[in-house]
Write a structure and sequence with these properties.
The chain is of the alpha/beta class. It is built from 10 helices and 13 strands. The strands form 4 sheets. It has a 7-stranded parallel β-sheet, sandwiched between helices. A two-stranded parallel sheet has the order 7-10.
Length: 315
């Protein structure tokens, strides 16, 4: 298989490259912005701005991939509140450019569009776990743009016969994730406290929210299985199928440290609107691909804490 990963410089891209190249022996091409770096050998790497459709057309004609993983996104909920225009440009205009460029080809590559469990928004208690057909009630700018992306993907699949599979991915974590995301943020703070460069106080936001966390290595395996076995035009939840309170995540992280750490709520870490619980129904994914979770949450958290300890020590 000849795969093209659009937006490979992010957290997920690194793991997806490794999985496709090393575990699957696929031929991998990947894109990044000019100022970004993508480590790893054995791949073809290109600079690409997805807001420039001409660049996408040239790249697709050059690479002619069998399948395209569209990872390029403004993926931070917090940043989407601060910069909604950028979020809309990248997440909506970017996908339209990609689909229009792919539609102009003389063949039909399979395209995987990565959305988010955040699209479901303010779910009702009786809607848990969330099925793909559930009503969408986006609670933030990021979620709204991803919902739009998925709708556009469905329209292009139906109107133009394009081979598009859509994903709503729930929270995924692993070593290497930026500390703007909650689990990595908590682990980084603990590592800095242990190193004596931060006072023994961990700053937190809303601890009552419940989220569906999956190791990103399990997530990218799901993406590959969907490329191989997913049904054209369909939408799939990708997650663990189990929601965990942020408080429980924090407790696990604190239990891995021998430091006495005070927990302090920081009002600046509270979102303007937050969704109480998000949990995926993943029965469709499992039925169509045979996917199963392989990495336990406890193992992932231990690895993230250790990764931050190493980074803090290295300066």
């Amino acid at each position: 298989m000849k795969a093209l990963i659009i937006g490979a410089a992010g957290f997920v891209g690194h793991y997806l490259i490794s999985h496709l190249r090393d575990a699957c022996n696929w031929q991998v091409s990947a894109t990044k912005l000019k100022h970004e770096e993508v480590p790893g050998q054995g791949i073809s790497l290109f600079d690409l701005d997805i807001l420039e459709i001409g660049q996408i057309r040239t790249l697709l004609e050059q690479v002619r991939p069998d399948c395209i993983f569209h990872l390029a996104a403004q993926s931070s909920v917090a940043l989407s509140w601060k910069n909604p225009a950028l979020t809309a440009d990248v997440n909506i205009k970017g996908v339209i450019n990609l689909l229009d460029a792919a539609r102009a080809l003389d063949y039909r590559p399979r395209i995987l569009l990565i959305g988010s469990g955040e699209e479901y928004g303010h779910v009702k208690p009786e809607e848990i776990p969330i099925q793909e057909e559930n009503n969408l009630r986006p609670g933030n700018i990021y979620a709204a743009t991803k919902a739009c992306q998925n709708m556009i993907g469905k329209i292009y699949a139906d109107a133009y016969g394009m081979d598009i599979i859509r994903v709503r991915a729930f929270n995924h974590i692993a070593p290497g994730q930026a500390p703007i995301f909650v689990v990595s943020d908590f682990c980084k703070q603990v590592a800095e406290i242990e190193a004596g460069i931060r006072e023994p106080v961990i700053s937190v936001g809303n601890l009552s929210a419940k989220r569906d966390f999956t190791d990103v290595r399990d997530v990218v395996r799901a993406y590959r299985l969907l490329m191989e076995n997913g049904r054209p035009g369909e939408l799939y939840n990708v997650g663990s199928g189990h929601a965990v309170a942020i408080q429980e995540i924090l407790d696990q992280i604190l239990s891995l440290s021998n430091q006495k750490i005070e927990v302090r709520v920081d009002s600046s870490r509270m979102r303007p609107a937050d969704v109480p619980i998000i949990e995926a129904d993943i029965s469709k994914l499992c039925a169509d691909t045979g996917w199963e979770r392989q990495i336990a949450l406890e193992q992932t958290i231990r690895e993230i804490v250790e990764d931050w300890r190493n980074k803090v020590k290295a300066g």
